[in-house]
């Protein structure tokens, strides 16, 4: 059985933070092995790293259960962020006025790829 597409993705649709803050954490894990990315997210000082970690774990379990990939060969190929809905609230101000407050939501997409290292045969002389 040959696998044509070695990409696996997981999407977390409503994350309660701005995309700008979330993009910092996603750029931090791009190109790393999946287990190294999880370790780095665990020790990150950003609050949102927990949600990114949940999404990476979801992508890993998708790869393992749906496509029977080896977890040790998974890399974070892409990690990107998009905008989602924005809650609009109002704060009362002086003289009967009101000022708007925007509470943005984000969408995380994690794409994992399986890289299989080919072992080269040693040539004996």
Count of separate structural domains: 1
What integer value in Å does the Rg equal?
Answer: 20 Å
Query: What's the mean pLDDT score?
Result: 89
Q: Count helical runs.
A: 3
CATH topology title: Ribosomal Protein L22, Chain A
Task: Describe the model.
The protein has helices spanning 19-29, 34-42, 49-67; strands at residues 7-15, 74-92, 98-114. With 125 residues, the chain is an alpha+beta fold. The protein has one domain: Alpha-Beta Complex (Ribosomal Protein L22, Chain A), CATH 3.90.470. A 3-stranded antiparallel beta sheet has the order 1-3-2. The longest helix is centred in the middle third of the chain and has 19 residues, at 49-67. The model has no long low-confidence stretch (mean pLDDT 89).
Brief summary of the model shown:
The chain is an alpha+beta fold and 125 residues long. It is 31% helix and 36% strand. The protein has a single domain, classed as Ribosomal Protein L22, Chain A, CATH 3.90.470.
Which secondary structure elements does this structure contain, and how are they paired or packed?
Elements: E1 7-15, H1 19-29, H2 34-42, H3 49-67, E2 74-92, E3 98-114
Antiparallel strand pairs: 1-3, 2-3
Helix pairs in contact: 2-3
Descriptive key words:
3 strands, 3 helices, three-stranded antiparallel beta sheet, elongated, 125 residues, Ribosomal Protein L22, Chain A, alpha+beta
């Amino acid at each position: 059985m040959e696998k044509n597409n070695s990409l696996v993705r997981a999407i977390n649709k409503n994350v309660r933070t701005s995309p700008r803050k979330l993009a910092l954490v996603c750029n931090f894990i791009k190109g790393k092995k999946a287990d190294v990315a999880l370790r780095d997210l665990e020790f990150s000082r950003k609050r949102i790293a927990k949600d990114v970690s949940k999404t990476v774990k979801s992508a890993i379990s998708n790869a393992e259960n749906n496509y029977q990939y080896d977890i040790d060969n998974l890399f974070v190929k892409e990690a990107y962020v998009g905008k989602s809905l924005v809650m609009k609230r109002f704060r009362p101000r002086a003289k009967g006025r009101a000022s708007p407050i925007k509470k943005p939501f984000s969408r995380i997409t994690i794409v994992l790829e399986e890289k299989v290292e080919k072992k080269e045969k040693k040539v004996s002389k």
